[in-house]
Design a protein that fits this description.
The termini are far apart. About 3% of the residues have low confidence. With 269 residues, the chain is an alpha/beta fold. Strand 13 and strand 14 form a beta hairpin. The chain is elongated and about 70 Å long. The protein folds into two domains: 147 residues, Response regulator (Rossmann fold, 3-Layer(aba) Sandwich); 104 residues, LytTr DNA-binding domain (OB fold (Dihydrolipoamide Acetyltransferase, E2P)). It has a five-stranded parallel sheet, sandwiched between helices. A five-stranded antiparallel sheet has the order 10-9-8-12-11, with no helix packed on it. Strands 13-14-15 form a three-stranded antiparallel sheet, with no helix packed on it.
């Protein structure tokens, strides 16, 4: 590919607003010139990303890390590190992600990112392509997959989440984990309950359960995670069902097969 041709960009994110933000930045001539980059497609999940990377052959992909189903790293593994285009990972999960990306020498955007940081990522990609440094991208991605595999295999490897980015119309709000009283599932979304309201994110309960500090949070039902120090009582409801009552008076469903584990965590009989 001639170095004067624009970067052919594929945007991969399960959040429509997140895709729209990157698309808008690239199409804004005041931010990114069309001679530098053009959007050739979008994908809303890992499966679609794999198909479009193989069919459209982009030179640059903005790849969300956390997506329902196949994650960004699953996409890299499926396509193959040596067959991936230049890749900028996009993530709202900071501690582990930053360490892994910097260790593997791959670029990333941490949500929420500003215009300058985005422009810098495009410039880096352009420079890497023009200098033919993209031939080392496969090695960097293999290193990242290796680091990810090691981290996943370790119970204590990943740092617990400290904050979560919530995408809204026109803005991204940061919710600090310390402010969360409990989390409930709502279809393919999760509701973060805090003292100042409820915040909706597209994330699996399983992923949140794995990324939250298990000394502070516990999944007590397939559709509920609670902050342990918010629990004030365990109650039996009609029909043999159970629930916990939180300090704020809310009741959250409790699975019968989680009662003993919850009591152990709380240090009660």
């Amino acid at each position: 590919m001639s170095s004067h041709l624009p970067l052919r960009v594929l945007i991969v994110d399960d959040e429509p607003l997140a895709r729209e933000r990157i698309h808008t930045l690239i199409e804004n001539e005041d931010v990114i010139s069309s001679e530098v980059a053009v959007v050739i497609g979008e994908a809303q999940d890992g499966s679609e990303a794999i198909e479009k990377i193989e069919r459209l052959r982009p030179t640059l992909v903005f790849l969300d890390v956390q997506m329902p189903g196949a994650s960004g790293l699953d996409v890299v593994e499926a396509v193959g590190p040596d067959d991936m285009p230049l890749t900028v990972f996009v993530t709202a999960y900071d501690e582990y992600a930053i360490q892994a990306f910097e260790w593997a020498a791959v670029d990333y955007l941490l949500k929420p990112f500003d215009d300058d940081r985005f422009v810098e990522s495009v410039r880096r990609a352009r420079k890497r392509l023009e200098g033919q440094e993209h031939r080392g991208m496969g090695e960097a991605l293999r290193d990242l997959l290796s680091e990810h595999g090691t981290e996943q295999a370790s119970d204590d490897g990943a740092e617990p989440l400290e904050r979560i980015a919530v995408q809204g119309r026109g803005e991204t709000r940061i919710v600090h984990v310390d402010d969360i009283t409990h989390i409930t599932a709502d279809g393919s979304y999760a509701e973060l309950h805090t003292s100042d309201g409820t915040h909706l994110i597209r994330e699996r309960m399983k992923t949140l359960d794995e990324r939250l500090d298990n000394g502070e949070f516990m999944r007590i039902h397939r559709s509920a995670i609670v902050r342990l120090d918010e629990v004030v009582s365990i109650r039996r409801k009609g029909g043999g069902d159970y629930a916990v009552r939180l300090r704020n008076g809310e009741r959250v469903s409790l699975s019968r097969n989680r009662i003993d584990a919850l009591k152990e965590h709380l240090g009660v009989d």
